[in-house]
Amino acid sequence: VQLQASGGGLVQEGGSLRLSCTASQGIVTLSAMGWYRQGPGKQRELVAGISRGGRIKVVDSVKGRFTISRDIAKLTVYLQMNSLRPEDTAVYYCNGDPVFLPWGQGTLVTVSS
After folding, report:
1. 28 phi and psi, to 5 degrees?
2. Rounded-to-integer distance, Cα 15 and Cα 81, Å
3. CA pseudo-torsion sign 39, 42, 44, 48
4. Pair 84, 61: CB distance under 8 Å
């Protein structure tokens, strides 16, 4: 099983990005999925999760700015990030929630002030 995250890049403060994560059908359909990030000198943290039933949770620091969604037909999980801040700069990864798969390479998001 391979998780492929994409969509990162350099964006100015206040900008938006949408990250995508592709996985096998079984994983996207049957598993709770999450987006994680690891900023410079920080531990990896769960940013947003979506349950099998579609219930969404987000960490307080991104509440109202980030949202997670899933397109089963496209076998893709998305992270829509709005009103980005410099502190959102990190490598973003997707995985199960809780984590149960090997980590992919992640996608780098850099927010300039």
Report:
1. -65, -35
2. 8
3. negative
4. no
Phi then psi for residue 25, to 5 deg, are -60, -40
The HSE-up count of residue 37 (CA atoms within 13 Å, CB side) is: 22
- Identify whether 98 is preceded by a cis peptide bond (ω within 30 of 0): yes
What integer pLDDT is reported at residue 5 of this predicted model?
Answer: 93
Residue of 34, 11, 9 lying closest to 23 (CA atoms)? 34
3-state secondary structure the chain: CCCEEECCEEEECCCCEEEEEECCHHHHHHCCEEEEEECCCCCCEEEEEECCCCCEEECHHHCCCEEEEEECCCCEEEEEECCCCHHHCEEEEEEECCCCCCCCCCEEEEEEC
- Which tokens in the block code for residue 61? 């620091």
pLDDT digits (tens, 9 = 90+) for 63-91: 999 999 999 889 899 999 999 999 999 99
